[in-house]
Amino acid sequence: MRTIALTGRIGSGKSTVATVLASRGAGVIDADRVVHDLYREDAGLRRAIEDRFGASVMAPDGVNRAALGAIVFADPSARRDLEMLVHPRVHAQQDLFLQRSRALGLPAAVIEAVKIVESGGSDRCDELWIVVADTAIVLDRLEGRGMSREEARRRMSSQGSVGAWIDQFVSASMRLGKSRPVLVIDNSSTIEQTSSQIERFA
Q: What CATH code is carried by the domain that includes residue 151?
């Protein structure tokens, strides 16, 4: 079974690529959705977040993601603290997903996550797929979701870069003693053009 680490900045189109791969029979797990579920279901995580960030980031159904995001995207130290709380729990869910995907005999399993390389989550994967798009297009997409351009730029700058992701992944591959491919998919244009790139790699 192929295991694919799928990453890219906000608005690049990771979910578009994941949807195409799922249509070809791959299993997909979305780290953002996992975090959302953890915020709602993991009482220990909610307590730890409230202890670190205060009651203002809590909500009746878990965590106020907008309030928490306003803090962590403006403060790298706060973001690191949140990641230390969240990443181990997300990795545990990803491990379960991979086990289930193998048991089902799926041809591929895709882990979609912005921080999969930095968190070490890509160590469990055989290849890294990075989704990119022109900055102006990404800003238009995020503005269409109701996000201001200032906030969009702030969030984009807080996330990784293609060069850094590749360097970290290659270094980890050397540490793990195996060669693993890195693929870059340009999602700046139509779904047909994106799908044609995936077809060459899949």
A: 3.40.50.300
